[in-house]
Design goal:
single chain; alpha/beta; five-stranded mixed sheet; three-stranded parallel sheet; binds arginine
């Protein structure tokens, strides 16, 4: 082979490799979402909140919120990558866009709406007072005055107890911890989400504890996202579909054995 022929041959090789490369790139942009690169959304959750999000001994996430989020992902055709975060760190993780969304029985409040966004309400909730079974003197909001009360850090329960005159407040990271403190006799009462507390008592998870006043407040849980999230509309559309096609009702009945109440649209 002469030197001229060799150069020509190499040149042809280069052109045909470039051609192949272009063809591959073009094919990829026509068919972008194969199974491998289907969209993953990172969803934060604090799985210490039975029956909304809990983690089994083998590490599996379960609960009403987990089922709902998976159903949303199925309708909206994205994949869920759950990430466990302490409840108290969720809002800052959303603000910093370290996660795409959070589902964790998070109450929609005007205060939170200043820094993050919420989906349409997906669960009607409220706070409850829990005491030890032998307690006779705490019956309602007024009887909490001057009492020792445990709450979850950063929760609506923590905000609520700030309005009780002379209450001595202890804050904890998770449900199991503040209920343990109540059982140990360190505090007189716990103020936390009614459905979670009642569910735990009914399922034998909180022996020695009773609820004396439930639904002290009217709250709605929403799926939280960063403020300008491109996923909020997708999540809302999927939620609307699940509410009208019976899937929401099915999930509600699975966990609460009851008909779901009517939810406001926003
Ligand atoms: N609903 C309450 C709030 O938004 C408490 C939620 C606690 N959730 C949890 N996964 N620990 O403040």
């Amino acid at each position: 082979m002469t030197i001229v022929k060799l150069i020509k041959w190499k040149w042809q090789q280069l052109i045909s490799s470039l051609g192949c490369l272009l063809l591959i790139l073009a094919c990829n942009s026509f068919y972008p979402s194969t199974k491998q690169d289907a969209k993953f959304l990172k969803i934060a959750t604090d799985p210490t909140f039975i029956p909304f999000e809990i983690q089994t001994a083998s590490g599996k996430l379960e609960g009403f919120d987990i089922d709902l989020m998976n159903a949303i992902a199925q309708v909206a055709e994205f994949k869920v990558d759950f990430e466990n975060l302490p409840f108290d760190g969720m809002i800052s993780a959303l603000q910093a866009k370290r996660v795409d969304a959070a589902i964790s029985g998070i109450t929609i409040t005007p205060q939170r709406l200043k820094t993050i966004a919420f989906s349409r309400p997906y669960f009607k909730a409220g706070l409850a007072i829990a005491v030890r079974q032998d307690n006779q003197n705490i019956r309602d909001f007024n009887s909490l005055q001057g009492k020792k009360i445990a709450v979850q850090i950063g929760s609506t329960g923590a905000d609520f107890v700030k309005t009780i005159p002379n209450a001595k407040i202890s804050t904890f990271n998770s449900g199991p911890e503040f209920f343990q403190d109540l059982l140990n006799g360190n505090v007189d009462a716990v103020v936390s989400d009614a459905f979670a507390t009642l569910y735990a008592i009914k399922n034998g998870k909180l022996k020695g504890i009773k609820v004396v006043a439930d639904l002290l407040t009217e709250e709605y849980y929403g799926i939280a996202t960063p403020k300008d999230s491109p996923h909020l509309e997708t999540i809302n559309k999927a939620l609307a579909a699940l509410l009208s096609n019976g899937t929401y009702k099915q999930i509600y009945q699975k966990w609460f054995d009851a008909e779901p109440p009517q939810l406001p649209e926003s």
